[in-house]
């Protein structure tokens, strides 16, 4: 259960970092107050009312009082995720160094053949307690 929760939380945090750093643009075309087309990638399709009118073959002009409008919504992502070690003050640097040192030493392997009573001699046996109380393990 703990491993599943750990994996789910790590995927969620990775998605949060990804979504906070991605920037995108939404283009919208309005004809009057009505939304005609909206696009996340590429160009929007127009309603056809903003085309150029040609008077002659040599001249063309755009209609001045067009009811159409294009709007663009830009969502900027976060750019400065990497924090430099030089911007930390002295107390923060000491904390980071001590944390890393203690975390690395946490996973050092211990000797597998530890005998805690190696330096001690066994006690002197004055009398046999099992024979004294006549209790024997069968």
From TrEMBL:
InterPro entries attached to this UniProt entry: DUF8199 (IPR058512), HYC_CC_PP (IPR058060)
Signal peptide bounds: 1-25
Keywords: Signal
One Pfam family here: DUF8199
Keyword field contains Ligase: no
Superkingdom of origin organism: Bacteria
The name this protein goes by in its record: Secreted protein
């Amino acid at each position: 259960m703990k491993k599943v929760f750990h994996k789910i939380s790590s995927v969620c945090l990775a998605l949060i970092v990804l979504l906070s750093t991605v920037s995108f643009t939404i283009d919208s075309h309005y004809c009057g107050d009505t939304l005609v087309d909206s696009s996340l990638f590429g160009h929007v399709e127009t309603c056809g009312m903003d085309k150029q009118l040609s008077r002659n073959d040599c001249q063309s002009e755009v209609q001045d009082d067009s009811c159409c409008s294009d709007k663009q919504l830009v969502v900027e992502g976060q750019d400065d995720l990497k924090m430099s070690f030089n911007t930390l003050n002295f107390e923060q640097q000491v904390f980071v160094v001590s944390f890393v040192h203690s975390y690395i030493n946490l996973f050092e392997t211990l000797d597998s053949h530890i005998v805690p009573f190696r330096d001690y001699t066994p006690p002197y046996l004055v009398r046999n307690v099992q024979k004294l109380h006549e209790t024997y393990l069968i």
